[in-house]
């Protein structure tokens, strides 16, 4: 099974899925190059997990063409299964078995050559910092350890595409950073393709080459983090004026996003670049206005999300 | 043509290899939590002791045999208690399948290129071994309290064969029921009637002593031919057409349970 480099790792067109009257996916297109990290961003209940379940052969779409590593998801699910690894939102480890036994179970099911099985599990235990816990039942593991074991089990079969469904949800900040580091190394060291879903904008920003925003069953935006920020970002500069006269003058003259009359503050749009900042400072100088405080807010994905969906991320949790 | 038969034989060998792997998984669970076997054996042993020592004196005399009393009753009740052991173990299987289905590990198995039904086959084969061990423990206790089987070597083999057949049937059924259940507690409850059935058959008293309606049910429900076949092999009582009926019931329940379980497993997760 050779794959030419030009072939996308995941390609999908017009994917639809509804549960009864509730349309979860309303025509999704995807084109993810091999060796890249793709993040599907959306609030809880947006259908991110459904996309992963469809692409990983767990459930069937109602309509659409889907290929993973060139194999048809519907017609040849076993070929797809042989090439993918899935680490879900709820960790898929056998709690009754030890970490090592879990890895050996995966080695058996992946039918690795006998001699390689122990070595592979040993390497993965070392790589994921689980050597000390190798002989303890997974039921005794912390959340972060379970996720690491979960991902290690996914890697036993050396998948070419890895689906990570909210890999850091519920983890503490330190475990989250560890997980990010592991994911980054997967891409650089092994050249796998990562399909990541997340509700954390920072996570997508940190890891992804490309991001798509899923909202009400559709991909409402797609691009690199920078592109999205540039396109939809609400970057701005906040100015606090020393006196109402200057504030009034500036409010009338500048292109204002929002104003606060009591505090004498104005927000003007900015992408956070030096050129526009200098132009603004020059203008203030020229008009002889005194500014007590200036804050530059560089656009982040929160702004993108807000611009696209009209809601802050955490406030939308539509019923399933 | 040869490519097709080649891929079929690969698929079959994969199915065997994957089922063996899943069986090893079940055996590891068993070794880690040996209390499961003790629990499966414990309930029937308690019933055995209760029936022999509390009720056995009277019930044994009521059997109308030449010796009567407690000694006669031990020999009468053991096959029923063995069937009760099978039912208790089936409940254990249902619980362990239900736990599996609620955990993410099954979602992982479903996204791997393995023989799909192997997860269930592993459960069934693991339960078979576990149930046979539990039965051995129950028979051990029975021998201590005066059970005197008349079976020769061939009849013992026959009894084991019949038990394997019954265990497979009830285990496949319990696997299917466990997947119908939405929770572990429901799965456990759904299997409770199975534990009552040996009592509502010829397990503890002859069906002739029952009121007409109950006798009719007792004579026609599958546990009665199961128990009569086992009793015949162990104690030399007449088997009649029980062996044929038992085989028929087992084939029917096994096939039905297997197909149902397989269908439920291949159904999409609803979430």
UniProtKB/TrEMBL annotation, chain A:
It is found in: Cell membrane. GO terms for biological process: daunorubicin transport; doxorubicin transport; response to antibiotic. Its EC number is 7.6.2.2. Its main location: membrane. This is ABC-type xenobiotic transporter. Gene3D superfamilies: P-loop containing nucleotide triphosphate hydrolases (3.40.50.300). GO terms for cellular component: plasma membrane. The keyword Membrane applies. GO terms for molecular function: ABC-type xenobiotic transporter activity; ATP binding; ATP hydrolysis activity. It is a peripheral membrane protein. PANTHER family: ABC TRANSPORTER ATP-BINDING PROTEIN, DOXORUBICIN RESISTANCE ATP-BINDING PROTEIN DRRA.
Automatic annotation (TrEMBL), chain B:
InterPro entries: ABC2_TM (IPR013525), ABC2_TM_bact-type (IPR047817), ABC_2_transport (IPR000412), Nod_factor_ABC_transporter (IPR051784). GO terms for biological process: response to antibiotic. Its main location: membrane. The chain crosses the membrane at residues 33-56, 76-99, 120-144, 156-180, 187-205, 239-261. It comes from the Bacteria. It is a multi-pass membrane protein. GO terms for cellular component: ATP-binding cassette (ABC) transporter complex. One of its GO terms (molecular function) is ABC-type transporter activity. Keywords: Antibiotic resistance, Cell membrane, Membrane, Transmembrane, Transmembrane helix, Transport. It is found in: Cell membrane; Membrane. Residues 35-268 form the ABC transmembrane type-2 domain. PANTHER family: NODULATION PROTEIN J (PTHR43229). Belongs to the ABC-2 integral membrane protein family. This is Transport permease protein. It comes from Streptomyces sporangiiformans.
